[in-house]
Design brief:
7 helices, Collagenase (Catalytic Domain)
Length: 273
């Protein structure tokens, strides 16, 4: 009897340890911005309409509570429709991208050293203009989550039916508790950025080439239209409920682009205008 109790106790402990680790370990591969000091500052290009500005400001302030990074909102450098990337920073855009099924996408470009070199966030007003998603809670959740992906964070949980974790990196049918980062998000950022790099990919200057420092094939990189699923590359992960996907596209010369897709509710997708 004692042996059975002992085995049960050990099994329970192991399950608990695994659950804690799975919940806390939500990095996006080992991808991170190269930088030579902490905290570093990442520019968020504001290519947003007025209705979105306050949500980006909230997200920026939330992530600035991290001990390893700061963000600052700056003028955007792209057309919101295309939302092209800028080396050394993230561009954040909104537009009526159409009834393509996705609510938001975040993309990061990776060089051969696993460093993030640029990123984009796109928010689809086709769905955010509907009664389901036109709420402060949904706008905060999706904005916070997509910007979090730009730092190298993955989701904490991808099951919409699970109880909310109080993190914007958690998928949930109830967005209200999940509008901001939680302590797990900040802790993981410290793990990701605990070491320093010999070179920086943050806030690079565009001197002679828009791809200075990692030199991808320019025509392919320039012509990617990341609101078009055909340009996302290969789908390498999809949640069980099909509400979240991760794609990768190889660009050559050691560069690739990863795209996280936050799919809208299928019922909402079929009724959107």
């Amino acid at each position: 009897m004692r042996k059975a109790i002992y085995v049960l106790a050990i099994a329970t402990l192991l399950v608990g340890l695994f659950a804690t680790k799975a919940n806390a370990d939500h990095a996006w591969g080992n991808y991170h911005w190269g930088r030579t000091a902490n905290p570093f500052t990442l520019k968020l290009g504001d290519n947003l309409s007025g209705v979105w500005d306050s949500y980006l400001a909230t997200t920026s302030n939330d992530w600035n509570l991290s001990s390893v990074l700061d963000t600052t909102m700056v003028s955007g450098r792209t057309n919101p429709r295309k939302c092209g990337p800028t080396v050394g920073r993230a561009e954040v855009c909104n537009y009526k991208y159409g009834q393509n099924g996705w609510l938001g996408v975040a993309s990061i470009w990776i060089n051969s050293s696993s460093h993030i070199t640029k990123g984009t966030v796109k928010l689809n007003d086709t769905y955010f203009n509907t009664s389901t998603y036109n709420t402060a809670a949904w706008r905060n959740l999706v904005m916070c989550q997509e910007v979090g992906h730009i730092f190298g964070l993955d989701h904490q949980d991808e099951n919409f039916n699970n109880a909310p974790l109080g993190s914007c990196l958690d998928y949930s049918n109830d967005p209200n508790p999940n509008q901001h980062p939680n302590q797990h998000d900040y802790d993981l950022l410290e793990e990701i950025y605990t070491h320093l790099d010999s070179t920086s990919t943050v806030n690079q200057s565009l001197v002679s080439s828009p791809f200075r420092g990692f030199v991808p094939p320019a025509p392919l990189s320039i012509n990617i239209d990341l609101d078009n699923p055909r340009d996302w590359g290969k789908e390498i992960r999809k949640s069980v409920d099909r509400r979240s996907s991760l794609f990768v596209r190889e660009l050559g010369r050691g560069e690739k682009v990863f795209t996280f897709v936050f799919w809208a509710d299928p019922e909402e997708s079929s009724h959107s205008r």
